[in-house]
DNA sequence: ACATAAACGAGACGGTACGTCAGGTCTTTCA
DNA sequence: TGAAAGACCTGACGTACCGTCTCGTTTATGT
């Protein structure tokens, strides 16, 4: 029973896949070239060889377009859990070093920064951004820490969500606010310091 | 030795203090009312009873106006160091609880969020933002931790800058990305977890 | 064969007739109310209930708008030739008296003056102004004088273009520069004096 | 007895002659370089090395400045009457040919055109323009024609003001509206045609 | 296979804000 | 105290995009 007040419900089954792809490509290319503030719907449409209405039909804002576009890229990566060699510190350092390298890659910077920034001012967008892009990566750390908690490497009773934040937030914050470099040394120091705090006491 | 290529250097000594104040008030009021994206230079000028050119003469962007405006407010606070009762955990919890309350205050939210977001996409702005608004607050934590290190509460050799990040970044990140509430309980748990990691090993 | 350097060619077939009309009406009304110098594109757009871009899309300047607007009004008049009763003097006086009355009408004054003035400083505009508004009225005089030349009322060999100027220029000049009134008496005297000069000699 | 409502009465005796000259020079130079529409008070002030207020103190508009500036130049010419060799046609042709050459000189064009155009839309300005610049040149023609009327070359009873208009208006109009060239041939034809009309009848 | 309805490309439209320019007023500083 | 310098408020400029709204033109079933 459709809401008769609804303005229009475009028929998703007839949607042009070609246009969708072209819009994603254009959006990602443009945000890298001109930055988020100068990214425009008209620019995306023109670069994609698409009518403006085709964008407005399927997305409510340029942030939503970019989120979908970036999400499509991210989804192509496998999201296996973290490795579990039995050495928690080594496992965390290994993955975080790889993540640091990723964040230092220019192709990721522009869209990720843009979306993070847009989310800061737009509550709904930030919820989607967190759920779609941040939560999946966060969860694997929580899972690995839980495994470590079960083997006694991490003290029982520690709030793993907060523990993960202690690990990932300094990392993200440094990058977002440019308060420091994301080097492998930094990652190692951070992991050691955090794990020390999580270790069973006494 | 002035740069002869400089387009024009307005004479700061003739600047109207009345206009400057009115612009700050208008900017802060408007960013709270309509949000950063709908904040416009024209809107600020009109609300402040000021010509647009008076804004363009002294600031390069709306972000710069807002940064100055918010900075002026922040500067009115005393920036004493953290209390030092000898109990590091208690001191940190006391101050962080107060900060949490501050961040939950709507009047602070709008401009701070706006500037953080703008900084994410604008390197130069982010440097100013960090130096002007974040660094002063961060430094007092570093100082308090150094004092604690000297009394042996904190292990020698710990990188205090990173330690401070472990404390403040999860806090900021939660707030910026809305991944959780800033409650007193959260603050207490975070402080305990972090301090445990900093404690001398034994 | 389109000029590829041309910036953009708006599609005239999609043009809104309603907007075009509204712009003409607004331009003519405003030039009468506030005068040419205080006539603004923004004012026209606002009065016409039209976006500024809709004006800039189709006209290069406010003078061009006004020229089209006034031209559209003028085109509604029939441009029959002058009457030919066989009495040249009477025919000229009859038409020139009517023209004098027209020029003394406030509704004609504002746009005509404005365009004449704009043309003085803008060569291209003046060419259009002359071709579109002045030439058609001038031609009918030349034609009538030619007929008179064939009947012998006007001396053969007289340059009819210059003869027409002798008749019309004093008239226009008086009005433009406000050096005198355009009365029926003035018209009669002028016609008599000019025709005397054109009469066959001997 | 000064009008106490008058906002301010600058003391003309203290006026800086140096500034006045510089303003005239700047105005005439600029109107030639950029045209009347792009001539600005700020531009004149800056070029003249003068404060804007110094212009506003002494003139009400840029047209007034230009009128004074051009008038000062014109006043340096002697305004003797027309020559009177006894041959009216020859005398008129001689002077009108010289005038045609003058009007074809670029240095005269810009300010004269500008003032004529400004006068079309501004009644008060046009009165001053006519009285200051046009009337003196016109009067010498009227005087010469009166002399001719007394010798019988021109029919008694002819309105000399209108006769002069028949001679000068076609000339000015051609130039203002660019409807034709001001050649010596043109001048000769015009003079002959007009004089024929003025000749005693019978 | 073909009718038909939707999505599509294109882009004109009424708007808002941009950043710039100049107008005319006012104040400060200097000679 | 007149003049230079220039900051100020005002308001129009011409441009860029916004989001909405037609226009024909594909395209993709569904009978």
UniProtKB/TrEMBL annotation, chains A, B, C, D:
- Highest taxon of source: Bacteria
**Gene3D superfamilies in the record:** Homeodomain-like, Tetracycline Repressor, domain 2
Record's keyword terms, sorted? DNA-binding, Transcription, Transcription regulation
Q: Which residues form the signal peptide?
A: none
Chain residues forming the annotated DNA-binding region: 40-59
Molecular function as annotated in GO:
DNA-binding transcription factor activity; transcription cis-regulatory region binding
Keyword ATP-binding among UniProt keywords: no
Domain (HTH tetR-type): residue spans on this chain: 17-77
Q: What is this protein called?
A: TetR family transcriptional regulator
């Amino acid at each position: 029973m459709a809401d008769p007040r609804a303005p229009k419900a475009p028929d998703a089954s007839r949607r042009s896949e070609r246009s969708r792809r072209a819009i994603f490509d254009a959006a990602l290319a443009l945000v890298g070239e001109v930055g988020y503030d100068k990214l425009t719907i008209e620019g995306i449409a023109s670069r994609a060889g698409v009518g403006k209405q085709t964008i407005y039909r399927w997305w409510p804002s340029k942030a939503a377009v970019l989120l979908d576009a970036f999400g499509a890229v991210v989804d192509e990566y496998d999201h296996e859990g973290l490795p579990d060699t039995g050495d928690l510190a080594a496992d965390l350092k290994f993955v975080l070093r790889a993540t640091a390298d990723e964040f230092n890659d220019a192709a990721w910077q522009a869209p990720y920064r843009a979306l993070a920034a847009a989310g800061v001012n737009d509550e709904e967008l930030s919820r989607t951004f967190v759920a779609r892009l941040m939560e999946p990566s966060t969860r694997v750390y929580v899972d690995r820490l839980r495994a470590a908690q079960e083997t006694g490497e991490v003290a029982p009773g520690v709030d793993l969500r907060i523990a993960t934040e202690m690990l990932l937030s300094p990392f993200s914050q440094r990058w977002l606010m440019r308060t420091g470099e994301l080097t492998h040394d930094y990652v190692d120091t951070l992991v050691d310091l955090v794990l020390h705090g999580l270790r069973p006491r006494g």
